[in-house]
Amino acid sequence: MVKNSFISVTFHAFQEKKKEKSGSVEFQVFSFTNKIQRLTSHLELHKKDYLSQRGLRKILEKRQRLLSYLSKKNGVRYKELISQLNIRESKNR
């Protein structure tokens, strides 16, 4: 429950920025993170939903590519985003 409240607070902060920069890397990573959490909770109930598992893997790969790009371009913004969203740092970094 604490995680959901954190997401809603973070979501409102990103909503304010959405009007300005909805195509930014940070916003895309944030939206992928929300999709990942939704799919993860769905897969806890429906363990044999293989199409959703495939979709989850694709979204995870997209988010990883965006995070890799951001870490190469701007390490400070990368660190801030990782800490805001409570995502583990990439091993390949």
Can you walk me through this structure?
By secondary structure, the chain is an all-alpha fold. The chain has a domain at 25-83: S15/NS1, RNA-binding (Helix Hairpins, Orthogonal Bundle), CATH 1.10.287.10. 82% of the residues lie in helices and 0% in strands. The protein contains 4 helices and no strands. The chain has helices spanning 2-21, 25-45, 50-73, 75-85. Helix 2 (25-45) packs antiparallel against helix 3 (50-73) and helix 3 (50-73) packs antiparallel against helix 4 (75-85). The longest helix is centred in the middle third of the chain and has 24 residues, at 50-73.
Question: Keywords, please?
Answer:
93 residues, mainly alpha, Helix Hairpins, 4 helices, 82% helix, 0% strand, plastid, ribonucleoprotein, Ribosomal_uS15, structural constituent of ribosome
Main sheet characteristics = none
Query: Which regions contain 5 or more consecutive residues with pLDDT less than 50?
Result: none
Query: How large is the count of helical segments?
Result: 4
Q: Remind me, CATH topology of the domain at 25-83?
A: Helix Hairpins
Q: CATH homologous superfamily of the domain at 25-83 - what is it?
A: S15/NS1, RNA-binding
Q: How big is the Rg?
A: 14 Å
Q: What number is the mean pLDDT?
A: 85
**The CATH class of the domain at 25-83:** Mainly Alpha
The percentage of residues in β strands lies in under 5%
- The 3D shape can be described as globular
Cα(first) to Cα(last) distance is 31 Å
Q: Architecture of the domain at 25-83 in CATH?
A: Orthogonal Bundle
Helix share of residues?
Answer: over 70%
Structural class, from helix and strand content?
Answer: mainly alpha
Element pattern in H and E: HHHH
Secondary structure: number of strands? 0
